[in-house]
Amino acid sequence: MLIREIKPDDDESFIKLIKQVESESQFMLFEPGERKISPEEQGKRIEVMRKSDNSTIFVAEEDKQLIGYLIAMGGYAKRNKHSIYLVIGIIAQYRGLGIGTKLFKQLEKWATDHNFHRLELTVVTHNEAGLWLYKKMGFEIEGTKRHSLYIDGKFVDEYYMSKLL
Fold first, then answer.
1. What is the CATH number of the domain that holds 76?
2. What SS3 state is found at 37?
3. Which residues is 2 bridged to in the sheet?
4. What's the CA gap between 97 and 111, in Å, rounded?
5. What are the Cα distances from residue 35, in Å, to 8, 22, 131?
6. Among 13, 97, 98, 114, which residue carries the largest CB count within 10 Å?
7. Which domain, by its residues, includes 58?
8. Closest C-alpha to 96, from 55, 61, 68, 58
9. CA separation (Å) from 88 to 4, 21, 46, 60, 104?
10. What is the pLDDT of residues 21-73, one digit of tens each?
11. Torsion on CA atoms 21, 87, 124, 66, rounded to nearest 10
12. Is 0.70 topped by the overall pTM?
């Protein structure tokens, strides 16, 4: 398995990966089929992130297939440029195999090399696997976003978590 930064020609496979993760997980922001983006639009987004010095996407690749991702979006104001917001997704059949850990380790190396100080993310409070991974990687709960999302006819809370580098 290879962990690497995304390339512009990953546009179609990255869209496919995101849509598969969203269809297999009840914890993502977008519901299955809700995301509408063309390969051209995704390619442009990838290129913008690659040119940015404070954002990137890492992907996990197995047998030339993308199986996971970790998106890192840096702050743009002077007051939050030290911070990166994270979104992770892994195809269901590859969860629990250490891919999330490898993605986070690669991201932390990149973030340290780029002088970032804070990593942050949100996680649905009943996403036990996600919570376990984030705590394992050194993230701490900072607070609760009450009724943050509406999933399957119910309001659910999210934890706001961070890790200082």
1. 3.40.630.30
2. coil
3. 61
4. 23
5. 19, 9, 25
6. 13
7. 2-122
8. 68
9. 14, 10, 16, 11, 9
10. 998 988 888 888 787 877 778 777 888 887 888 999 999 999 999 999 999 99
11. 20
12. yes
